[in-house]
Amino acid sequence: MLKKREISDVHVLFDLLQHPAVYPYVREKANTFDQYLAITQQTILKEQNGNLISRTICDETQQPIGIISLVDLEANTGFLATWIGQPYFGKGYNYRAKLDFLYELFTTTAYNIVFLKIRKNNARSLRANGKLDYVHAGHLLYPNVYEKINRDIPVEHQFQLFFVTKADYLNYYDKQQSLSIV
Question: What are the pLDDT digits (tens) for 39-88?
Fold first, then answer.
């Protein structure tokens, strides 16, 4: 379901991110194929240099359908950023991608906390996030982070802050695995 970022996926991903239901919410904004190609090349280099972690989300046929990344890395924390192409909305890909990505992250690295910031007007992402039992509201426990992500941003574009701890996630993952065995 997840694979390392590859240049060969750029064309398919660029087409998916251009959809008006996707584009406003992606970090990797590009108006042309060449811009997205350059962004992807930079992303691959940044991962090689330890500045982010990024994976391509694939469907059952290994077709690229979106991106999941950990960005803004600092002191064993980072921000999770995901997007899925519009034809794949509501099919469980985002849920599965987060499950796999966080498992890889928390079992192979020293990261302890992952933050999620979701625009307050992004109802679809807020609904999807609400289905994740291991995700918690973060504005009260991390007021400095909350203030930082919303600094100098107009109210209509501000974010809600959420977080996942390594311990909570691995506990959730273990419970899910034991339920699937039964």
Answer: 999 999 999 999 999 999 999 999 999 999 999 988 899 999 999 999 99
For residue 161, is it left (φ>0), alpha (ψ between -120 and 50) or beta? beta
Nearby residues of 4 by Cβ (< 8 Å), 6 or more positions away = 47, 54, 55, 56
> Which domains are delineated in the chain?
2-181 (3.40.630.30)
* Bridge-based pairing state of the strands 53-58 and 2-4: antiparallel
Confirm if 46 and 80 have CB atoms less than 8 A apart.
no
Q: Check whether 151 has a pLDDT greater than 70.
A: yes
Pairing between strand 53-58 and 64-74?
antiparallel
Amino acid symbol at 153? I
Q: Give the sign of the dihedral formed by CA 128, CA 19, CA 86, CA 113.
A: negative
**For the ranges 29-38, 76-85, 170-179, which has the lowest average pLDDT?**
170-179
Give dist(CA 5, CA 48) in Å, integer.
11
Structure tokens at 97: 């991608």
Distance separating alpha carbons of residues 120 and 37, to the nearest angstrom: 30
Half-sphere exposure in the Cβ direction for 72 (13 Å, CA): 13
